[in-house]
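User: Hey, my collaborator sent me this sequence without any context and asked if I could get a structure. I don't really work with proteins. Can you help?
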Amino acid sequence: MTQLSEFHRERVQSVLQASPLVPVIAINRLEDAVPLCQALVDGGIPVLEITLRTEFGVDAIKAVRAAIPEAWVGAGTVSSIAQYRQVEAAGAQFVITPGVTEAILEFGLTSEAPLLPGIATVSELMTGYALGYREFKFFPAEVAGGVPALKAFSGPFGDVTFCPTGGIRRDTASKYLALKNVQAVGGSWLTPDDVVAARDWARITEIARGSLADL
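Assistant: No problem. I've predicted the 3D structure and written it out in structure-token form, which is a compact way to encode the shape of the chain:
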């Protein structure tokens, strides 16, 4: 059975070690992508998960990669191999899925952009584990059991680390990051819809800095 390479694992680890917070970014206006992401980087967050929740996701990845080369720019909400190929072609440096299929897990073994697969159960974790994956997104974190679930996972899977996302807030992020098996936390609180709609990039930078200071 083909196993995940050390190269892929090291790339994912580099992303998760680069920032304890991973903003979950939905771009509703393509022209907002670069200033929004620059505001996050200015606030001390160099890891950017640009989701495919809107039609502008792929083009936003391409634009941000070109404009902010010092950042880690990845794709989120990738749910098919066709989308995986699209974001790779756009320059995504990592790929995050909301869940897993065997096809996506196998594609990620040899992909250009390393995969952080999303799981919510031990059975899904074991499917990825068998292929060599040791880093996972835990989603939707709060609904799927939150901190107690991750503590329970650490028993049988002490060599697995997580980036929980889903329902986590600025005031609860530190509880997750206190766990030994959590490397980073993802959240949309870093890019509030009303602040982005107002194009208040200074406020985005302030939220990023404040959120890091709270940890």
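In plain terms: The domain at 6-209 is CATH 3.20.20.70 (TIM Barrel). You can pass these tokens on to your collaborator as they are.
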